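Below is how a single chain appears once it has passed through the pipeline. First comes the sequence as given, then the structure the pipeline wrote out for it. We keep one example in the README because the format questions we get most often are answered faster by looking than by reading.
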Amino acid sequence: MKLGLKGRVAVITGSGSGIGKAIALALAREGVKVVIGEIDTQKGVKVAEEIRKRGGQSLACATDVSRRDEVRQLIEKAMKEFGRVDILVNNAGICPLTPFEDIKEEEWDKVLNINLKGAFNCSQCAIKFMKKQKFGRIINIGSIAGKDGGVVGFHYSASKAGIICLTKSLAKYGAPYRINVNTVSPGPIDTEMTKNWPVSTKKTRLKQIPLGMFGQPEDIAETVVFLASDLARYITGENIDVNGGALMD
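Resulting structure:
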């Protein structure tokens, strides 16, 4: 069976760097037309330009996923430019490493608004078009923290746990319309986020990973490519762990 991705249209949030950028490049490699949704305009434009230089089709749209009006504009721009939305990757997220008793209400709200409400906003705006097409793939980026928690980033862990359950609910809702919805939950990945961790934290986390290394953004990207493809047509409502064995169900 072939991937069946050529000519599809994907909207990827938070895709100006890190995991999101790797996902955008991997899907573009397979012939997917990519819409970059990124709050950092310059980063988003650079990724879109890189895809075009490689012979792909891409455009960037400045997007704060916590703002409903900006999400609506993102999806409408994709529809206007490419005529459809086949794949939505809800990747945008933030992870302040604030100790529990130091988390202020404003910070809690910001994390939940971007990480969880953002996925809700994007999914709700995109799914009406997928229903009309009778086809869609929604792939949410979760986290190992959404399953086992953590001693810092309580709001991040809570938001990612919400993502996993949102996925299951959306999968049940979308199934009659051939809309598959899944989560990919990374463990520690070698990105700017983990590069800023204290050395002691990195050493501790490495000891918890049986494979003995942090993952690369491409490890997540290739899993997303699989879930977006025809190879995964019978997979929905699942959480795929990509964590080097750090957490085994």
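Strands lie at 9-13, 33-38, 58-62, 87-90, 136-141, 179-186, 239-242.

See the next section for the split statistics.
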